[in-house]
Amino acid sequence: MSLKGQAYIVGAYEHPTRHAIDKSLSQLHAEVALGALADAGLSIADVDGYFCAGDVAGWDAPGVGPTSVVEYLGLKLRHLDTTESWGSAYINHIEHAARAIAAGKCRVALITQAGRPRAEKMSPELEHRLQAQSAPESQFELPYGPIVTNMYGMCAMRHMYEHGTTSEQLAWIKVAASHHAQHNPNAVLQKVVTVEDVLSSPIVATPLHRLDCCVISDGGGAVVLAHPDVARSLKRPLVTPIGAGFSVKHLNGGYFDILASGGVQTGAEAFAQAEVQPADIQYASLYDSFTITVLIQLENLGFCPPGQGGRFVADGGLISGVGKLPFNTDGGGLCNSHPGNRGGMTKIIEAVRQLRNEAHPAVQVPSCGLALVHGTGGQLGARHGSATLILEREE
Amino acid sequence: MTNRIPTAPQPWPETEAFWNAANEHKLLLQRCPDTGKAFFYPRTYSPFTGASPCEWFQATGRGEIYSFSILPRAQPPYCIAYVTLEEGPRILTNIVTPDYESLKIGQPVQVIFVESTDGQNVPMFEPC
Questions:
Q1: Where are the transmembrane segments (chain B) (predicted)?
Q2: What are the pLDDT digits (tens) for B11-21?
């Protein structure tokens, strides 16, 4: 069943905090929920469907995580979906919410995301190690010290080996993000950087530099989807998902290609469903845990042929108003925020801003009617959940 | 120079054969009973068809570097890598060498065994 017009994104809100020392995780979820509902012109009482992933308070306590948040918010639900695929989960939740609304399971769907790794001094490495204790692969991997940076370093190293990609080309991705972030007063990094700045930052894991990495920040965001009848009664632009894809990529018994993410499958599926081509996309929110993440996703989604990502991003290829494909105009995870080490929600929110003509004027894509959101949750060079979403503004 | 001491793995009963063999400096793999294809990591059921039992066999221990990344600021620095084994599967490991600068993708490597924090040996690789 086509997604188009089944449901509309009527509310979106990004939390302004980047260091939430004085706020609980539940409070952050509540603040983003209330922010997105206010943006839509709805209230808590209107919500009958709730979507959350593993970042909710109490998730680690036996069984009660999602229900605890439902209670904290005082939601009265008919539908709950806790699908977890780390940072890409929220992008996947948009499709789930649209289908749940189409199936009559709910009429107003709330999706929240929040995290405070900075306040908790929880590095992605430590988080990974804690979560991985009982995973079947852990005994064969943890002894070797896989931290996030060196796993992505291997992806970059292989891409350079196969395709001749250079550190300068990767650096252009950070440069583009920084050009956008200078207009975002909430961004963690607001200073415009040059290719030379990236290359002169210390190597964290060969061949990646410190500035090839995203920021670590607190915060979060929320999105509200509504049934067409509800959406038309609200005074917000009509943004609808028209294509979506989800897949899990893993190491397949030892036979894998670290340059082919789950995006190969999810991109093809989303584009076919939406009946549009990569060249039709006017704005893209692409997961940017590292510069290499963006490069591989661009190729996997079909924005350029395999191996051509380096050329695609060089010389400002991703800068709004300059390049072929404006990306992450809020500054992305590379400069703005990577709340809770999960970047999917902020990706959706900036795409909605673009489609509503509500992005910062300096980075707004003129007459933006078609946007793509893509996330890689987990680790690119190992196991991850990929989600692609194509959004359209309906006039 | 000092090498990084690997953290001890936490074996399950289904993987004890692998770790016992590692203590005898043997690298074991398993084969899918349906396809005959070698796979990694070890488990009770074939990741290709779900079949069992999956026979254990000793790998040659030879392979080549598929990709790697060095953490120059770790104390001590170390190199993580995927190595493609002669038998087919790729495995996550460390490359042990006094000369990280010389490492290259495609380089042939040979298994060695290194004691982890609790004495359990774990397979690593060195250039050959």
A1: none
A2: 999 999 999 99
